Amino acid sequence: MRLLLAGAGAAVAVLALATPAWAHGADAPDGTDYRTTVTSVSPAAAGLRVRAVEAGARLELTNHTGTTVEVLGYSNEPYLEVRPDGVYENVHSPAVYLNATLSGSATLPPAADPTLPPSWRQASTVPVVRWHDHRSHWMLSTPPPSVAADRSKPQRIRDWVVPLRAGGVSTMEVRGTLDWVPPPAAGVWWAWIVVAGLGVAFLGLVGRLGGLVRSLSVHGLASSAPSPSSASSSSSAPSPSSAAASSSPAASSSPAASSSSLPAASSLPASAAAGWEPPPPSTPARWVLPVLAGVAAVAGVAAVVYAVGREVDAGNDGFGALVRGLFAGQIWPVLTGLAAIAAALHALFRRPAADFALALAGICVAIFAGVSNAAAFGTGIVPFEWSPTLGRVLVAVAIAGGAGVTGAAALRMRATAGRPPLPSARRPVEDQPTGTPAVESGA
C-alpha cells in the first residue's frame, strides 16, 4: 500500500510539471481518412524540426537554433514566436483563437485584429510548440469532389505551405501534403473479433462439457438397467426348476447354494434401486485457468503498447514526456492494461477469486482500451506511431481477449457456484432419548 501511495504521489508530481506546450491534445482524433505529411522545411536550418503529430491533427515545431523562429498566421501576421526561453503567442492574431480547436470554430474577440501591432504573451517555457494549423487539414465535413467520385483509391488532395520567419528577417516555409487514405472494411475486423472472443469464451465450457458427456453416459446405462418393479416381479415368480431346487432338502440345507442363488448387492446398478440421479457438476479443467491468464496478459500488453504508440505519435518522444502523456491522455487504457496483467499473474499463482479478477480486468480492458479506440477499424489513418495494421491488431486483441476472458471466467464461476458443498466431518450430536453423545455422519 505504501508503494502504491508513493507511486501515485510521483505521478501527480510528474503531471504538475507538464506545461501547456507539452500537454496532450484534448481533441486528438481517434482516427481520420486524411493523411497530413510534412515534406520539407526550406531553407533547412540546423536545430529546427517541424513534423505532423496526433494523426496529423497538429503541427509540432522544435527550435534549438538559438534564435527566434516566428510562425505566421492566416493573414501573414505574427502568430507564434518560438524563442530559446519558450513559446509566445500574439493575442491580436486570429489564429490564436481559430487554432485552439481542430474544427476551427471559435468566436473571435475584438482584440483579434491582424493589422494591430503584435502583443506577446508567454504560453510555454520550452522551445517547442504544437498547434492546429488548418492549412494542413481538410476542414469541410464533405469529402473533396475527387474523393466523392472514387473513395476506394488513395489520392492527393493538395499541397500546403505554412510560412515562417527566422530572426525577424529570413523567410522560411514548411511544405507538406494532404492525402486521402481509404478506410479498411470495419465489418471484417469486427467479424474476426467476434469469432476470437467466442473462441476464448468457449474455454469456460471445457470442463462442463466433459461433465455433460459423462452424465449422458450414466443416463444411458441407467435407462438400459432393469427397473426395481420388474426385478421384484420376476423374483416373485420362481421357475419350476428353482422351485424344485428349493424343495430339495440338500439345496435348502446348503448355505453356499442359497447364497449363490441371490445376486450380489454390489452388482446391481444404483439406478435399479433408487432411480437415476445426475452426477454432481464437474470441476473445470485445471489447464484452462493458465490459458485464460495468458490471454488476459496478452490483452493487457496490447492495451499498454497501443497507448504508448498513441503518445509517441503525439510527439512525446523522451521518457519523461512519454510518462506525462500516458498519465494525461491514456490513463485508463494504461491502468486497465496493467490490471489485466496483474490479474493474469494472480490467476497463474491460483490465488482465491482468480476467475473474478480475470472477469473484471477483462471487461475493463475490452472497454477502456479496446472499444474506446474502435474508430481505428473504420479509418485509414490510425493515431499510432507504427504500422496502422499493427495498431488495429492491438485494439482487436484488447477487445476480443478481454471480452473472451470475461465470458470464460463468468462461465467457470457459474460452474463452481453450482457444485455441491463437500460433506462435513463426522461430528458428535446429542442423542435425543438419553442425552448421551453419539456420532453422526455429515454425508
Molecular structure report:
With 443 residues, this protein is of the alpha+beta class. It is built from 15 helices and 12 strands. Strands 1-10-9-4-5-6-7 form a 7-stranded antiparallel β-sheet, with no helix packed on it. Strands 2-3-8 form a 3-stranded antiparallel β-sheet, with no helix packed on it. It is elongated. Keywords: Membrane, Signal, Transmembrane, Transmembrane helix.
SSE topology:
Blueprint: H1 2-16, E1 34-42, E2 48-53, E3 58-63, E4 69-72, E5 78-83, E6 86-90, H2 95-98, E7 120-124, E8 128-131, H3 145-149, E9 155-166, E10 170-180, H4 186-201, H5 206-224, H6 228-236, H7 240-247, H8 249-253, H9 255-260, H10 270-274, H11 288-313, H12 319-329, H13 331-348, H14 354-370, H15 388-417, E11 424-430, E12 437-442
Antiparallel strand pairs: 1-10, 2-3, 3-8, 4-5, 4-9, 5-6, 6-7, 9-10, 11-12
What's the helical proportion of residues? 40-55%
Query: How far apart are the first and last residues' alpha carbons, in Å?
Result: 44 Å
Q: Number of helical runs?
A: 15
Which class of secondary structure composition applies to the elements?
Answer: alpha+beta
Give the overall shape. elongated
Radius of gyration: 37 Å
How confident overall, as mean pLDDT?
80
Order of SSEs: HEEEEEEHEEHEEHHHHHHHHHHHHEE
Low-confidence stretches: 1-24, 233-237, 239-268, 270-274, 438-443
The portion of residues forming beta strands comes to: 15-25%
Task: Please describe the biggest sheet, giving its number of strands, its sense, and whether it closes into a barrel.
Answer: 7 strands, antiparallel
Number of strands: 12
- Main-sheet strand order equals 1-10-9-4-5-6-7
